[in-house]
Write a structure and sequence with these properties.
Blueprint (H helix, E strand, L loop, with lengths): L7 E6 L4 H12 L17 H16 L8 E4 L3 H14 L7 E4 L16 H7 L1 H10 L12 H18 L4 E6 L1 H11 L4 H9 L8 E7 L4 E9 L1 H6 L16
Parallel strand pairs: 1-4, 2-3, 2-4
Antiparallel strand pairs: 1-5, 5-6
InterPro entries: His_Pase_superF_clade-1, His_PPase_superfam, PG/BPGM_mutase_AS, PGM-Related
Protein name: Histidine phosphatase family protein
Pfam family, one: His_Phos_1
């Protein structure tokens, strides 16, 4: 008997955000703190991020009706919700027939005391935490007031269980954040710590990049279909960005 699974899962990182742009500027200038006034949850898309979301939406709209998303689940963060809205509008996904869910478990990883700090800022203001992170590793390191990747995985386990239970046989689109993409891959592909961190070291997840899975009935599991797919942006002539999130700490 095949376990309950959606027939298709797409996982999309939000479009480029104002936080991505601010972080790049702060790092380039050698600053300690990222200059952005909004709470992380309130950081909007940049103009380019909006363009990326529309380009990806046109690609989803080009799929046959029987291949388009039936359920869309998004992080509550503004940049993810804006990506979702623009994508759905461009795709022509009617909210009366496509179920939209907002789920706080898909929120960005919480950075705690390291929030808004650049790489230099972390090393200068919290050298002991920089050393601890280097020793423990990104997967298990939890900054004070923040989360480790393990903490994110823990909350995502219930998301995967909910999706498999409530959306059996459906096509599900998830819109969230870079760490969420990696941790969902960790769960769906049954990865280990060193494997998911190797994926992270390969580079940042592209803004509006698509990683997808299709149900393999014989394996009774979800099989990888696409990874960091950005052809829709390239075809639309939209610049592709692979920027770390505004509050992200450096890679090991």
């Amino acid at each position: 008997m095949t376990p309950n699974w959606p027939s298709k899962i797409w996982i999309v990182r939000h479009g480029q955000s104002a936080g991505n742009v601010a972080r790049d500027a702060a790092e380039a200038a050698g600053l300690v703190v990222i200059d952005i006034a909004d709470r992380d949850i309130d950081v909007p898309l940049s103009d380019l991020g909006r363009e990326q979301a529309v380009a990806l939406g046109h690609w989803f709209g080009s799929l046959a009706p029987g291949d388009q998303p039936e359920v869309v689940i998004t992080s509550p963060y503004v940049r993810a919700r804006q990506t979702t809205r623009l994508l759905m509008e461009a795709a022509g996904l009617d909210p009366r027939r496509v179920r939209l869910r907002i789920d706080e478990r898909l929120r960005e990883k919480e950075f705690g005391i390291l929030d808004r700090l650049t790489v230099r800022g972390i090393r200068e203001r919290h050298p002991e935490l920089a050393a601890q992170r280097s020793h423990v590793g990104k997967f298990y390191f939890r900054p004070p007031g923040g989360e480790s990747w393990c903490d994110v995985v823990l909350r995502l386990r219930s998301v995967v269980e909910m999706v498999s239970r409530e959306h059996d046989g459906q096509r599900v689109l998830v819109v969230a954040h870079q760490v969420i993409v990696h941790c969902m891959r960790y769960l769906l592909e049954c990865l280990e710590e060193h494997e998911v961190l190797a994926l992270d070291r390969q580079g940042d997840v592209p803004n509006c990049g698509v990683t997808s899975y299709r149900l393999d009935p014989q394996a009774r599991a979800m099989a990888v279909d696409l990874v960091n797919f950005v052809a829709p942006l390239r075809q639309a002539g939209t610049p592709i960005t692979r920027e770390p999130d505004a509050m992200a700490a450096p890679k090991p």
